[in-house]
Amino acid sequence: MKFEAITIKDIARALDLSVSTVSKALRDSHEIGEETKQAVLIYAREHNYKPNPIAQSLKKGHSRSIGVIVCNIDNNFFSQVINGIESIAQSKGYNVIITQSRESYEKEVSNSEHLSSRSVDGLIISLSSETKNIDHLKRLYEKGLPIVFFDRITDEIPTHRIIANNFKGAYEATRHLIQQGYRKIAHITSSDSLSTTSERLAGYKQALIDAGISIDERYIKFCLHGGMIREETHEALAELLQLPERPDAIFTASDRLSTTTLSQLRIMQIPIPRDIALVGFTNSISADIFNPSLTSVVQPAMEMGQQATEMLVSLIESRRPVTQFEKRVLETQLQIRDSSQARQSPSP
Amino acid sequence: MKFEAITIKDIARALDLSVSTVSKALRDSHEIGEETKQAVLIYAREHNYKPNPIAQSLKKGHSRSIGVIVCNIDNNFFSQVINGIESIAQSKGYNVIITQSRESYEKEVSNSEHLSSRSVDGLIISLSSETKNIDHLKRLYEKGLPIVFFDRITDEIPTHRIIANNFKGAYEATRHLIQQGYRKIAHITSSDSLSTTSERLAGYKQALIDAGISIDERYIKFCLHGGMIREETHEALAELLQLPERPDAIFTASDRLSTTTLSQLRIMQIPIPRDIALVGFTNSISADIFNPSLTSVVQPAMEMGQQATEMLVSLIESRRPVTQFEKRVLETQLQIRDSSQARQSPSP
DNA sequence: AGGCGTCTCGCAATCGTTTTCGTAAAAAAA
DNA sequence: TTTTTTTACGAAAACGATTGCGAGACGCCT
Fold it and tell me: CB A54 to CB B118 under 8 A?
């Protein structure tokens, strides 16, 4: 199967001009006479000429495309971020290549290399939960590939970063549970290598401390795969429930973790929030129709994607090496629903 | 910022060879002596040489990438399909470029043209709900671009297609509602230009006919934007509720439509299924934790993506023009949950 | 020694576009 | 008229990789 389009050469032949003349006419160069220019333009329009972006990329050394690596698009937070990325990229004439690491370090490495060799002009990435070593990204960075981190970021590479205010989001979520009368608040979170995990964990702890509640490490459960493996969350939850001082509330730190925990609690027929209250860190668009509707810390995902893309494009299009890097922090929003209704019976 | 990688030219210079020799050595040509070959291979490995895919695309006329157009990745069905596409594409050495039409005809046109001009080797597409005219795809098809349709397909282009058994899925969903004791079953569906809409509508009607229930056209509501615009669904629902013979059950025909309808019913404080039962055509991974848990027709989305990709790759890699085209139909699965519990009070 | 084949390798064209530079012819200045 | 400037275009070299073809070098046979 062959896909053949009209090229500059065809126009040149048809109009008895040279390719260089046609190229310049198309780009509206001052070197070309008005008559010739018009002739070329008209011919091009009539024959629906489209410059070959592959050839342009080769010549110009960039592809006007940006690569995106997220752990999973099957997740409201990331798909909303991607929507934001796409909207800005489109408006700036970039095209977006989306890949998924599926929380695997290896896939993240191979994806990043694949993208760079496909000569994307820049990379927007949220680290996988398995990733501890970022040499693969350092290599690309040192070769000059502009990178912007979002959500799960690293401090090891000096570049733009954008995150939600994870500390404050987690702090407010926890404080909310406390205000609702809960005291034994557990925290189910992702891999401890993630920046989001430590920030949210810190916010959770601070809220407890500020309320004079001591921190019980047994109440903190890490799920290395961030809820991608259901059994992992299941186990963490089971351990929590078997504790002598069973928690009366759980604060889950990620999208998938929240839905999985809710689902599991319902399977175990544990009434929410009567036996255990729940607050999630989730952008699920269906949190309002969950049973019970889920109180959630919502991130400005779309905006995060938009701003990440703007920062990346400014990096790509900057004429001189950028040395001043920014770390933007976007505010989260606590949406209060039924899963964190005030505690009924007083604490024993 | 400049991104510089090692090229064949660099290797040639370093080893005092010609570029053609290096190129042939890299491709393990028989024309090149064993010694030279090894020298090149070793040097290439040590310096982490990666052929420039842009240059290869230009030269070879293909890019080993496939384009995907869906209306929205922020949707469990499509993101699952994409997961399927990605898994097969990856294993066959193709890379995937995902774009969203966001149910807009114009975006679908511009995306398809952009993808083809970026010389993807093939296209996997599910039509947008606005799309009535597919000349833009016919143009690409006639130029020789392999295309595979999934989910929302068309008969106007002779090529491979893959869908769920929409008729049967809708039939079973409706029959289930009937068996549960409902008689006044409404249907909220997407744009009537979509193949999925007419197939599911037909299944719905057939189930009613087979049960001896007459079809009331007032019970059938089309949402042109497939639930993307909340007000649209809201209005459809409101009209349904104001009917003299208010329906006692609703069968929604798409992912977003189902969640929006459920959400809206809850806002209106209409008990489900007591006042109105609900069955959705949805792949939501959270249907089990909805309130009430949502009975759903689930499509084998991942498998659909995988098979679509296999069909596309076979089209791309076929040496001779393909003339025999296939229309695969995958079976759906009815997951029964609380939203369709048997009717309590007898029909008036 | 001459003829022939084999083995290695380089030359040059090619993909489609951009860009630098050179150069006719026309126009303006002398 | 001669010289200079401007205008309008073409030739050619890139970008990085691939590939058909030609050509030395060597060995083998007659």
Answer: yes
Mark which residues 284-343 of B lie under 8 Å from A by CB.
284-286, 288-293, 315-316, 318, 321
Q: How much of chain B, in percent, has pLDDT values that exceed 90? A: 78
Is the CB of residue A207 less than 8 Å from the CB of residue A179?
Answer: no
Asked if A156 and A204 sit in the same domain, the reply is no
Distance, in Å, from the CA atom of B13 to the CA atom of B312, rounded to the nearest integer, reads 41
Q: Which nt sits closest to A58, CA to C1'? A: D15
> Each residue of B31-89: pLDDT tens digit?
999 999 999 999 999 998 989 988 999 999 888 889 999 998 888 999 999 999 999 99
Shortest Cα–Cα distance, A204 to chain B (Å): 25
Distances A308 to A60, A87, B29, B102 between C-alpha atoms, Å: 24, 12, 45, 21
Pairwise CB contact (< 8 Å): B82 & A61? no
pLDDT at B228: 82
Q: How many domains does chain A have?
A: 3
Cβ of A52 and B2 within 8 Å? no
Task: Compute the average pLDDT of residues B84-99.
Answer: 89
The Cβ-side half-sphere exposure at B292, using a 13 Å CA radius, reads 18
Cα distances (angstroms) measured from residue A320 to each of A315, A324, B257: 9, 11, 49
Measured CA to CA in angstroms, residue B73 lies from A82, B2, B273 at distances of 9, 33, 30
Residues in chain A: 348
**CB contact (8 A) between residue B54 and residue A74:** no
- Judge if A188 and A245 occupy the same domain: yes
Q: Is residue B127 part of a domain?
A: yes
Average model confidence (pLDDT) for chain B? Answer: 92
Same domain, A290 and A228: yes
Same domain, A81 and A155: yes
Supply the CATH number for residue B179's domain: 3.40.50.2300
Q: Is B32 contained in some domain?
A: yes
Query: Which ranges constitute the DSSP H helices of A180-229?
Result: 195-210
Show Cβ contacts of residue A287 under 8 Å, excluding neighbours closer than 6 positions: A280, A293, A294, A296, A335, A337
> What is the dihedral angle through the alpha carbons of A189, A193, A195, A200, rounded to the nearest 10 degrees?
30
Answer yes or no: do A19 and A74 share one domain. no
Whether residue B259 is found in the same domain as residue B306: no
User: What pLDDT, on the 0 to 100 scale, is given for residue B209?
Assistant: 98
Please check whether residues B281 and B201 belong to one and the same domain.
yes
B2 lies in some domain: no
Q: Is B312 part of a structural domain of the chain?
A: yes
Residue contact B58–A54, C-beta within 8 A: yes
The position carrying tokens 């043209």 is B113
Give B-chain residues touching A230 at CB under 8 angstroms: none
Considering only CA atoms, which residue is closest to the C1' of nucleotide C9? B21
Cα-Cα end-to-end distance for chain B: 74
Q: The domain containing residue B181 runs over which residues?
A: 166-299+334-340
- Is B77 at the interface with chain A, CB within 8 A? no
Residues of chain A with pLDDT under 50: 1-3, 347-348
A341 Cβ contact list (under 8 Å, min separation 6): A180, A273, A277, A292
How far apart are the C-alpha atoms of A62 and A118, rounded to whole Å?
Answer: 10
Question: What are the φ and ψ backbone dihedral angles of B83, each rounded to 5 degrees?
Answer: -55, -40
CA atoms of A87 and B115, how far apart (whole Å): 16
Residues with CB under 7 A from strand C: A 4, 7-9, 19-20, 23-24, 26-27, 31, 49-52, 55-56, 58-60; B 16-21, 30-37, 55, 58-59, 61
Indicate if B305 and B289 belong to the same structural domain. Answer: no
Q: Residue B4: which pLDDT band, with cuts at 50, 70 and 90?
A: low
In order of A247, A288, B38, B119, B336, the CA distances from A274 in angstroms are 12, 18, 71, 57, 27
